[in-house]
Amino acid sequence: MRAEGEEILEVRDLVKHYPLTRGIVFRKQVGAVRAVDGVSFELRRGETLGIVGESGCGKSTVAKMLVNLERPTAGRILYKGEDIADLSGKALKAVRRNIQMVFQDPYTSLNPRMTVGDIVGEPYAIHPEVAPKGDRRRKVQDLLDVVGLNPEYINRYPHQFSGGQRQRIGIARGLALNPEIIICDEPVSALDVSVQAQVVNLLERLQDEFELSYVFIAHDLSVVRHISDRVAVMYLGRLAEIGTEAQIYQHPTHPYTQALLSAVPMPDPAARARRERILLSGDVPSPAHPPSGCRFRTRCWKAQERCVVEVPELAVPEWFRKEGGPPAHPSACHFAEERRVVPPEGTEDPDDT
Amino acid sequence: MERRMDQQQTKNLLDVRDLRVEFRTRDGVAKAVNGVTYSVAAGETLAVLGESGSGKSVTAQAVMGILDSPPGFVTGGEVLFRGEDLLTMGAESRRRLRGAKIAMIFQDALSSLNPVMTVGAQLAEMYVVHQGMTRKDARARAAQLMDRVRIPAAQERLRDYPHQFSGGMRQRIMIAMALALEPDLIIADEPTTALDVTVQAQVMDLLAELQREYNMGLILITHDLGVVADVADRIAVMYAGRIVETAPVHELYAAPAHPYTRGLLDSIPRLDQKGRALYAIKGLPPSLTDIPPGCPFNPRCPRAQDICRTDRPPLFTVAPGRASACHFWKDTLDES
């Protein structure tokens, strides 16, 4: 297990509201989109924290705040004990060097007018202390080699590469400054299946090689399980459940996690009959008008009076705390109970003909 | 099992035979579809699986007769719908079939629906144009249809525009539109790719239920091995414009007979498994303007021998209802 390292990033009660305004001359705030509404987690050195959730749940907004592309409305992001939201100037620059990002879309996140060498080497222009000028070209070629691209391609342009190769370029750029943390926002979603495996394997190899910590954001639950040590499940700007990969996938206690897991199509036609499907009704509510109390209650089959009035806290439910074991992990539900929806590992189906 | 046997005895709804499509571009001729043969019976779901550029969507477009031409040209083959060749049919009779007998569901509902027409008007238009219904009757039918695909408050929502619906609801409208004239065959091109998993499950369930009810043939085009396993009866795996393997769904997942299929299955992470590095198929799919001689998969294949670089493998019959375009299908099959 890699999950034993020191805490390197701590997020406390992170909030991001985007104001909704009316009027042109006299702007008046009429409400807010509560994209992220109180999210807390920590990241340890060398581990991968997966964040899963459906579109609009706020997972990408969290990513942007972690790399300081968005300022939080409230809450703290502590990098080695220092709040990065308070920093500016030199101190901020130093922190940013250590937290890099790999973006989802390898087609729009690379400047089409820059060569691969310029793209991967650009971080050195901002942080010249990492690589002296004469040394940069060689460094860039090393990086290309590390991510599995031919170093001779240094003068080519992004359009000359396939999607998977472009994502490698994006990863090389993220690695350029020897960061400690890489935030990966849907890094493989835009790739074909056969190429996706190459990039996932690359990310895992780089993690071992450079002792990286990842925050891995994705909507594909299978990929997240594969790569993550711990997993956080997000719904409408809040965390529903957080725990180790085994706790979340084998012992989910939040109804949303259970529904989400049961909805994932499995590449195994024999599982079709064996599996229990939880079909949710309706859509995710708008984050501008989230439901009171528990945010999931409008789609939850367990919802009762209490869920309307009382916001469930993200904590280990009392009844599990006594028993201990894998279900004892933080889950934001008043009526949390364990329900297995993913067949446990190693249960091979009897030969079907 | 029994259901499948029955289907094979009835006549096929759609027979695609040796279909060839190419795109004539400035950079050369891209051979997008190179001799594709498949068939679908009533009540059957055929999944066409492939990565981007494998020709799976182009095949469907050629079947529907909605290929962008130029640059796309059908250069050979037959598309038989109930025994009639669509490719030699006149444009007008083909147009009458489209929508009425063969309907299509596209991936991106937002760009497939008309943004300046209410969804009620778009649905009603189908009945007015194809069946000469009065506007009032057509509207009533449209409301029924929206109710059928479980859109809440259907009557009131007839007056809404596509942008007022969520992604899942829009995809339901697309399904309603495809169903409007009770077609015999539906071609669904990545119908749930843009949707979240919980919504995807809703939409796929709805589609499967409606298919059973109307006993339609369904061609499901997708890249998602999970979705295929959930709904398909048979699978055709495409690579570089060819079908490389076709089999009943259980058999294909249990024991693939083509190294490409094997590689695909090994390269996806599983929800119910953790650990071990993923198998990655090396390299990239070939450019369609420059498909390698011999087997198109040979540069990426762990099994490739000299014969694979020179002789193009035909679809060998592996078992009844199963075929694989690999010289070494036996070894591949034995290994799994």
UniProtKB/TrEMBL annotation, chain A:
<dbReference type="InterPro" id="IPR003593">
    <property type="entry name" value="AAA+_ATPase"/>
</dbReference>
<dbReference type="Pfam" id="PF00005">
    <property type="entry name" value="ABC_tran"/>
</dbReference>
<dbReference type="GO" id="GO:0005524">
    <property type="term" value="F:ATP binding"/>
</dbReference>
<dbReference type="InterPro" id="IPR013563">
    <property type="entry name" value="Oligopep_ABC_C"/>
</dbReference>
<dbReference type="GO" id="GO:0055085">
    <property type="term" value="P:transmembrane transport"/>
</dbReference>
<keyword id="KW-0547">Nucleotide-binding</keyword>
<dbReference type="InterPro" id="IPR050319">
    <property type="entry name" value="ABC_transp_ATP-bind"/>
</dbReference>
<feature type="region of interest" description="Disordered">
    <location>
        <begin position="325"/>
        <end position="353"/>
    </location>
</feature>
<keyword id="KW-0813">Transport</keyword>
<dbReference type="GO" id="GO:0016887">
    <property type="term" value="F:ATP hydrolysis activity"/>
</dbReference>
<dbReference type="InterPro" id="IPR027417">
    <property type="entry name" value="P-loop_NTPase"/>
</dbReference>
<protein>
    <submittedName>
        <fullName>Oligopeptide/dipeptide ABC transporter ATP-binding protein</fullName>
    </submittedName>
</protein>
<feature type="domain" description="ABC transporter">
    <location>
        <begin position="9"/>
        <end position="261"/>
    </location>
</feature>
<comment type="similarity">
    <text>Belongs to the ABC transporter superfamily.</text>
</comment>
<dbReference type="InterPro" id="IPR017871">
    <property type="entry name" value="ABC_transporter-like_CS"/>
</dbReference>
<dbReference type="InterPro" id="IPR003439">
    <property type="entry name" value="ABC_transporter-like_ATP-bd"/>
</dbReference>
<dbReference type="Pfam" id="PF08352">
    <property type="entry name" value="oligo_HPY"/>
</dbReference>
<keyword id="KW-0067">ATP-binding</keyword>
<dbReference type="GO" id="GO:0015833">
    <property type="term" value="P:peptide transport"/>
</dbReference>
